């Protein structure tokens, strides 16, 4: 029964994945925790809370749900809607301080883009421990005495997540398309929806095949940036879908100019729609929507004291730290998704972003505005 | 790594906040704020909880009070700072990036007036309880607590009416400004619960918007 409920929640909220789903904040008891049980914290996106609760099943611990406006950990933290204020608030107001004797709270690693562990420590007695990226690694993380191996630190885009993203794209797009054509072409709703779902699944499932050809420095047409810049993959995709359409038409003897024109147009628009921010829909690439925000992670080795926070919070394992030689390098900088977590957490301000125009984005500015920078530029006095 | 729609919403919110709130209250929020600051006197020390873009802060500054404005939204604080500077009150007003959970770092009995406009409705129940406890601690005896916020009407008929009117309005406002609010429940009761005396209470817009003046009792 519980499993069925869990499945239904997952199905519905995956279809509406782009919409915030706030849930109740506060303390959740898992198992039979005592005064020394670990304390975990997550955002108040309903789906996340359900999944974390499931991952913690069998443990005795407390789960704190902090306010993130119903948005998932990574997006909310990076967009400035899930910060140390929300963490401090739930630590002090939820009553958790009366339930445990220790003052250690385990946070999801991806929250490191917006939550400053240092400030949590200053303004409360609590000590922040950066947990694994995925809740399912929590039991192993505990067995490993709160140490993370590389597998627990990096984001991946496995089959299940790709299916989720395919559904998250297909459902809203096909719903809107269906509403739009409802008055004119009612009979087309079913085939069009089938096409949109098919294309979405094809693109996300075939992702490993063309992943290496994606480029953040894509070509811009109007306000649309295509992730398949030089490779012209969207053309190839369009061609593939056209073939399907023609195949269907030939099989059912429906070949006429009207049919071909209409479906060529529909497949083109849908291909463009899906290729618009494909990279941004994955956890392993930086969104290419804002070319002006393509930044390069850089290190000032004079300031670096190899504290190692960068390595601990980097979801792409970009860093290499040589503690004997007191040297930090970024050999895998190409994998950087520009989440900014390393910059926010570095206690010595040794990391910063460099823009393509050579402009430097300081840690101070990123900590204050997060990476929601254009919001800053758009601010007007109302 | 970001999702387009989500980022757009996040990015454009602060600059549209003021407009959003005006739409949600049919412009009534301006007048409510004017009335609310009536007890503020020249030289008073004032705390503005969730000062946002500084709407209440500005009104208290004009009356010659010294104000501390706290909020967790840095973009809104930037707007508030600019407004206050432009109006020439930078000497008497200071802003801090601070959430209600951090109010326990402020000094006991150090404010003549504590005010808050459209902030309580954004708090969780736990935060609300904590904030009221802190308000009681931070106010000087005889000090004023001023609140303007959206509330859930106590009468069921008004509650239904409010919902019917609010629902389309919330959708329209959200589409244009990505701003929305959530109403508070039983706020008068909660304020009486911390031992404050309600001095005046005005409900408007189908009893869904409250302007409330409460007072911390003098020490005996």
Distance between the termini of chain B: 60 Å
Q: Classify the fold: give the CATH topology of the largest domain in chain A.
A: Rossmann fold
Computed CA radius of gyration of chain B, to the nearest angstrom: 17 Å
Q: What is the name of the CATH architecture of the largest domain in chain A?
A: 3-Layer(aba) Sandwich
Structural class of chain B: alpha/beta
Count up the domains of chain A. 3
Number of helices of chain A: 17
Run of helices and strands of chain A: HEEHEHHHEHEHHHHHEEHHEHEEHEEHH
Beta-strand residue fraction of chain A = 5-15%
Strand content of chain B: 15-25%
What is the CA-atom radius of gyration of chain A, in angstroms? 23 Å
Order of helices and strands of chain B: HHEHEHEEHEHHEE
Helix count of chain B equals 7
**Main sheet of chain A, how many strands, which sense, barrel?**
5 strands, mixed
Specify the CATH homologous superfamily of chain B.
Answer: Vaccinia Virus protein VP39
User: How far apart, in Å, are the first and last alpha carbons of chain A?
Assistant: 51 Å
Shape of chain A: globular
* Structural domains of chain B: how many: 1
Query: Quick check: average pLDDT of chain B?
Result: 84
Contiguous uncertain segments of 5+ residues of chain A: 219-225, 373-382
Spatially, the strands of the biggest sheet of chain B line up as 3-2-1-4-5-7-6
